[in-house]
Amino acid sequence: MHKVVSATTNPAKIQAILQAFNEIFGEGSCHIDAVSVESGVPEQPFGSEETRAGARNRVKNARLARPDADFWVAIEAGIDDGSTFSWVVIETREQRGEARSATLPLPKVILERVQAGDALGPVMSHYTGIDEIGRKEGAIGVFTAGKLTRSSVYHQAVILALSPFHNAVYR
């Protein structure tokens, strides 16, 4: 059984990680240990590079907090070019896999508040009345009428970031 450290305690992110690992390595193939660690970037990262740096920093900090794992996984959400997206970074002792998620264009009224300094989660909670929306369906669930959720989009990116770990051609 793989010991996987999730560099977040966010249920939407943990669900995506667990589902992806079960699909790639088999049902019940992993145990997830969730740990809250710092990203080293602002609460609301802007741009692809700052967002990826946040995910890489979370993996590094999760490795320091829980060094005895087989995998360390971080998902960092950010804003880039008027859209929300995330970077997934997965590491073992030997290698790293990274993938960027699909993007969701944000409405002007939401984007303006985020660009003024508010994080997307609180802005969306205010807009929808859903407390801690970032730990639930997120903006993605709201603006896709529930066809996609924050977790489902993260799930795809985790699957992509796992590719180097089960395909020999990456080694």
TrEMBL record:
Keyword presence, Transport: no
What is the organism of origin for this protein? Answer: Scandinavium lactucae
Its GO biological process annotations read: nucleotide metabolic process; thiamine metabolic process
**Residues at which Mg(2+) binds:** E38, D68
Name the family: Belongs to the YjjX NTPase family.
Report the function annotation for this chain: Phosphatase that hydrolyzes non-canonical purine nucleotides such as XTP and ITP to their respective diphosphate derivatives. Probably excludes non-canonical purines from DNA/RNA precursor pool, thus preventing their incorporation into DNA/RNA and avoiding chromosomal lesions.
Main EC class of this protein?
A: hydrolase
How, per the record, is the cofactor bound? Binds 1 divalent metal cation per subunit; can use either Mg(2+) or Mn(2+).
Report if keyword Nucleotide-binding is assigned.
Answer: yes
The lineage, from the top, is: Bacteria, Pseudomonadati, Pseudomonadota, Gammaproteobacteria, Enterobacterales
Q: Out of the domains of life, which is the source?
A: Bacteria
Which parts of the chain are coiled coil? Answer: none
Cofactor(s) of this protein: Mn(2+); Mg(2+)
Q: Which InterPro entries match?
A: ITPase-like_fam (IPR029001), Non_canon_purine_NTPase (IPR002786), NTPase/PRRC1 (IPR026533), YjjX_NTPase (IPR050299)
**Which keywords fit this entry according to its UniProt record?**
Hydrolase, Magnesium, Manganese, Metal-binding, Nucleotide metabolism, Nucleotide-binding
- Molecular function, one GO term: nucleotide binding
Q: How does it assemble?
A: Homodimer.
Question: What's the EC number here?
Answer: 3.6.1.73
Q: Tell me the name of the encoding gene.
A: yjjX
Q: Where is the Non-canonical purine NTP phosphatase/PRRC1 domain?
A: 7-165
Protein name per the record: Inosine/xanthosine triphosphatase
> Where does the chain bind substrate?
T8, T9, N10, P11, A12, K13, D68, A69
UniProt catalytic activity: ITP + H2O = IDP + phosphate + H(+); XTP + H2O = XDP + phosphate + H(+)
